[in-house]
Amino acid sequence: MADTGRGGRVLIVDDRPASHERIAATLSAEHSVDVESNPNEALFRATDGNYDLVIVSLSLESFDGLRLCSQIRSLDRTRNVPILALTEPENGARTLRGLEIGVNDYLMRPIDKNELLARTRSQVRKRRYTERLRDNVQTSIEMAITDALTGLFNRRYMENHLSTLIEQAGARGKPLSALMLDIDYFKSINDTYGHDAGDDVLRDLALRVKRSIRGIDLACRTGGEEFVIVMPETDMAVAAMVAERLRRRIAAEPFPINQGQRTIPVTLSIGEPMP
Fold first, then answer.
1. Is residue 273 over pLDDT 50?
2. Is a pLDDT exceeding 60 seen at residue 216?
3. Which domain does 201 fall in, by range?
4. pLDDT attached to residue 109
5. Ranges 18-27, 43-52, 71-80, 125-134: which has the least confidence
6. Does residue 3 sit within a domain?
7. 127-158 burial: b if 16+ Cβ within 10 Å, else e
8. CA 205 vs CA 29, 236, 250, 259: distances in Å
9. Catalytic residues
10. What 8-state DSSP symbol labels residue 147?
11. What is the chain's Cα-based Rg?
12. What DSSP state is assigned to residue 136?
């Protein structure tokens, strides 16, 4: 179904009540509208509001509207939010400058209601389309480097980055260790309780591993029930301590399966860490 461009969240930045009241009344028929009459607060509103469009008057009395547009465009949280500028016929140079710094569209006063609605819908549609594209790209990247079941990095990611980590460790003269994890008798878990139960165990194990390692450590699922944890700046003695602590924690707490209807014991074998 085609996006109508309606139902967006719009912020109007205009310090003239007669102006912003008319604009808000028109747009409120199709959108959720907020008005900020204090330009000094507008940037905070824009960053906190998750808006689909910001409408900025370039004729603000107490603030440079172009400067506000530039600030909105420069911040990470608002960089991709469309800006619709309201300008005066005699301010052609300022309007052109607005387009140069990232204003998406503009309207000349006096503002025609139908044109305002049409341009607002257009910008809201573009915003939504851009967000969908960004989400799709992010999803594709995540699918390429992560294991779908556990959310850990996959073998491809580990193989691509392990050599880099080894080179960095050598260049810095720092140790690098790796733990190789294997769930004991995992085939028996699948055969006895079913593959859904086996998936429950794998997901829960991944969560426990994440909670047990540092932010700089790299946890990967490399096979069915096989995992690797790469630990930068960690020597063999420390890695052995981490491995034993993780092994004990896993064995100490049974794993819920079948939507928590029962629990089963799970143990790990952890290979010798590699320097």
1. no
2. yes
3. 155-270
4. 94
5. 125-134
6. no
7. beeeeeeeeeeeeeeeeeebbeebebbbeebb
8. 51, 23, 8, 15
9. 225
10. -
11. 28
12. H
Instruction: Give the pLDDT confidence of 156-182 residue by residue, as tens digits.
Output: 888 888 888 888 888 889 999 999 999
Buried b / exposed e over 112-126, threshold 16 CB at 10 Å, is eeeebbebbbbbbbb
Residue 52 lies in a domain: yes
Q: Identity (one letter) of the amino acid at 134?
A: R
pTM of the entire predicted model: 0.57
- The two beta strands, 105-108 and 83-87, are parallel
Instruction: Please give the sequence-ordered ranges of beta strands (E in DSSP) within the chain, or none if there are none.
Output: 9-13, 32-36, 53-57, 83-87, 105-108, 176-183, 218-221, 226-232, 255-257, 262-264, 268-270
> Please, which residues have CB within 8 angstroms of residue 234's CB and are 6 or more apart in sequence?
175, 176, 177, 242
191 domain residue, yes or no: yes
Per residue in 239-249, pLDDT tens? 999 999 999 99
> Tell me, what CATH number does 117's domain have?
3.40.50.2300
* CATH of residue 222: 3.30.70.270
Q: Is residue 145 part of a domain?
A: no
The residues, any chain, with a CB within 8 Å of residue 162's CB and separated by 6 or more, are 230
Residue 45 sits in the same domain as residue 160: no
